[in-house]
């Protein structure tokens, strides 16, 4: 559980709730085809369905600051650096404004390009 204290009391979030918000924020960015998760049987990366976007997100919390790591598949012909920058800005904005948690870092891993 990750939480914060304000003048009204204590608010706690599960990692799954935060990861779902991060996954949905990522999918809103132009050029993102989907989130990726490692298939444990084959060791290959595969696209994740919308219901399980949190599997393409890793969250570490220290001192109420989040470090977020994302695994995404992007569209062919788009500039990867621009996509990654947009994802970082959108995820940081949504987490900090909707949940009130401080985001320390966002790492975007491009796991594939879809034609």
| Count of structural domains | 1
Task: Describe the largest sheet.
Answer: 5 strands, mixed
Q: Can you tell me the CATH superfamily? A: Cation efflux protein, cytoplasmic domain
Radius of gyration (CA) equals 15 Å
Overall mean pLDDT score?
A: 87
Relative strand content: 35-45%
Quaternary organisation: single chain
Compressed to H and E, one letter per element, the order equals EEHEEEEHE
Structural class: alpha+beta
Number of separate strands: 7
What is the fold named in CATH at topology level? Alpha-Beta Plaits
Map the helices and strands.
Elements: E1 2-6, E2 9-13, H1 15-27, E3 32-38, E4 45-47, E5 57-62, E6 65-75, H2 80-99, E7 102-114
Parallel strand pairs: 6-7
Antiparallel strand pairs: 1-2, 3-4, 3-6, 5-6
Helix pairs in contact: 1-2
Properties at a glance:
115 residues; Alpha-Beta Plaits; 5-stranded mixed sheet; 7 strands; elongated; Asp23; Asp23/Gls24 family envelope stress response protein
Written description of the protein model:
InterPro entries: Asp23 (IPR005531). Belongs to the asp23 family. With 115 residues, the chain is of the alpha+beta class. It has two helices and seven strands, in the order E-E-H-E-E-E-E-H-E. The chain has a single domain (16-114), classed as Cation efflux protein, cytoplasmic domain (Alpha-Beta Plaits). A hairpin with a 2-residue loop joins strand 5 and strand 6 (65-75). The mean pLDDT is 87.
């Amino acid at each position: 559980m990750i939480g914060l204290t304000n003048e009204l009391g204590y608010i706690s979030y599960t990692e799954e709730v935060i990861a779902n918000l991060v996954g949905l924020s990522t999918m809103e960015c132009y050029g993102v085809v989907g989130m990726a998760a490692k298939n444990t049987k084959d060791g290959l990366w595969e696209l994740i369905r919308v219901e399980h976007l949190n599997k393409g997100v890793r969250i570490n919390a220290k001192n109420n600051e989040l470090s977020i790591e994302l695994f995404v598949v992007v569209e062919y012909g788009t500039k990867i650096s621009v996509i990654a920058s947009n994802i970082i800005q959108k995820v940081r904005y949504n987490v900090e404004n909707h949940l009130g948690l401080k985001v320390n870092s966002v790492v975007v891993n491009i796991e594939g390009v879809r034609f």
